[in-house]
């Protein structure tokens, strides 16, 4: 299977990934919601403990499995945008349990070479019932993700702090350029 059109949106918690994903969906692109938000909803509904503020290791393992399922179920041959994915979950697992990225990710976990990062953006960061960590912790997560993506030889593209429609234009322009030069 080729996942070269599966594009990962990663970066700072509260940096606008979900908003950008909604804009891409509005434009007709296939999108996949963040595994973590879905897990939090499921665990909260059933009184489970696989929540990042209770058991980060269990949460990260579930996120890794769900992200892998998402990739398997996603269409091939067209652009598909993922709000977080296997790399994010493996990075959380490394942070929680010390498990190296190579032990969590296989070759099939590769996304498009360009990964788009939402930078720390305090003006739009919001604490909510599903995001129970502060901005400083979100910044630390961003640093871990940046280091992990670099270690995995991805080209990271920092998304500019612009209105969502301009962010989407920027991302799509970068992808068009990468296709023309490939």
UniProtKB/TrEMBL annotation:
Spell out the SUPFAM superfamilies in the cross-references. P-loop containing nucleoside triphosphate hydrolases (SSF52540)
- Looking at the record, the residues that make up the NadR/Ttd14 AAA domain are 7-167
Q: Which InterPro entries match?
A: NadR/Ttd14_AAA_dom, P-loop_NTPase
Provide an example Pfam family for this protein: AAA_28
What is the designated name of this protein?
Putative ATPase
């Amino acid at each position: 299977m080729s996942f070269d059109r599966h594009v990962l949106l990663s970066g700072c918690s509260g940096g606008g990934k979900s908003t950008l994903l909604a804009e891409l969906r509005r434009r007709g692109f296939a999108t996949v919601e963040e595994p973590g938000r879905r897990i939090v909803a499921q665990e909260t509904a059933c009184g489970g403990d696989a929540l990042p503020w209770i058991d980060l290791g269990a949460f990260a393992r579930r996120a890794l499995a769900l992200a892998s399922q998402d990739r398997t179920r996603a269409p091939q041959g067209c652009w598909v945008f993922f709000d977080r994915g296997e790399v994010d979950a493996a990075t959380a697992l490394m942070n929680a349990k010390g498990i190296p990225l190579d032990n969590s990710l296989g070759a099939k976990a590769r996304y498009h070479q360009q990964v788009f990062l939402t930078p720390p953006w305090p003006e739009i960061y919001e604490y909510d019932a599903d995001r129970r960590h502060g901005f400083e912790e979100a910044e630390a997560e961003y640093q871990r993700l940046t280091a992990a993506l670099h270690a995995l030889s991805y080209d990271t593209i920092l998304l500019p702090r612009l209105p969502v429609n301009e962010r989407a234009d920027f991302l799509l322009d970068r992808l068009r350029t990468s296709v023309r030069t490939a």
